[in-house]
Specification:
Blueprint (H helix, E strand, L loop, with lengths): L1 H43 L2 H28 L10 E9 L2 E8 L7 E3 L11 H6 L7 E9 L13 E9 L4 E12 L16 E10 L3 E4 L13 E2 L9 E5 L3
Antiparallel strand pairs: 1-5, 1-7, 2-3, 2-6, 4-5, 6-10, 7-8, 7-9
Length: about 250
């Protein structure tokens, strides 16, 4: 009787151990099957992909915003146009063409305004009216010469070159203008003047007008002289810089 009870208990314990081992093996097997079946499904779920798209879209949007902001900082908009004007008159002894370097407000760029000499050299007058921004409503350049029979005798004045620059409705704040010796005048003298192309531009007189002020630069003026030594010896020589502040409206 005792033997049978002992054997029965031993058999039950062995069966319990086998069931535990089988349960553990079955759990591992089921987990492996679940990973094989459900794993790809989890990887194919769109939640992670959508999150990555959101992150990429936000990043690209931030980069575009910073790029636009940097462009606005580097290229500031010009100030509004005024109802004012700027007129420059440059007069000099000698026969030569006179150009202008012009720097409008709110930019560090210089624009060249030059005569139409027939050589198709590009001026930048149009860029002042609609390039980076409209700095004026119109810009007019003109030049005249007094060369007929000048210096033929002691009773006539020396030959002179006179250039004009008119800026209508310039933008507000400070403008900078530098006249310069552009090139020799290209026409036949007909024997009236000896080798005029070797003459320098001297005894300069530079006058600037706006609605609010007048500045005159010549020998002995309160504003000073127009160029160093009061002359421009060679094409490319620059006169002194003039600053004209445009006041609104």
């Amino acid at each position: 009787m005792k033997l049978s009870l002992w054997f029965g208990k031993k058999t039950k314990k062995a069966a319990a151990r086998r069931r535990a081992v089988l349960a553990a093996e079955q759990g591992v097997f089921e987990q492996a099957i679940l990973e094989l079946v459900d794993g790809p499904r989890k990887r194919e779920e769109p939640a992670i992909g959508l999150s990555m798209l959101d992150i990429m879209a936000c990043g690209l949007g931030g980069v575009a915003f910073l790029a636009v902001l940097q462009m606005l900082i580097r290229i500031p908009l010009p100030p509004p146009l005024s109802q004012n004007y700027i007129l420059a008159e440059i007069s000099a002894e000698g026969l030569g063409q006179i150009g202008f370097f012009v720097q409008p407000p709110a930019t560090d760029r210089w624009f060249s305004v030059i005569p139409d000499d027939g050589n198709k050299r590009p001026g930048q007058k149009d860029a002042l009216l609609g390039g980076e921004g409209a700095y004026a409503s119109s810009i007019t350049y003109s030049q005249t010469y007094s060369y007929q029979k000048c210096e033929a005798d002691n009773n006539t004045p020396p030959c002179r070159s006179v250039a004009y620059l008119h800026i209508e409705a310039p933008s507000l704040e400070e403008w900078k203008i530098i006249p310069y010796f552009y090139q020799y005048r290209n026409f036949s003298t007909g024997g009236e003047i000896d080798d005029f192309q070797s003459q320098l531009l001297s005894n300069l007189s530079c006058t600037y007008w706006s609605r609010d002020c007048t500045k005159s630069f010549f020998e002995g003026s309160e504003d000073g002289i127009c160029a160093s030594g009061n002359q421009l010896a060679h094409p490319g020589d620059l006169a002194n810089k003039a600053k004209i502040t445009v006041i609104g409206p």
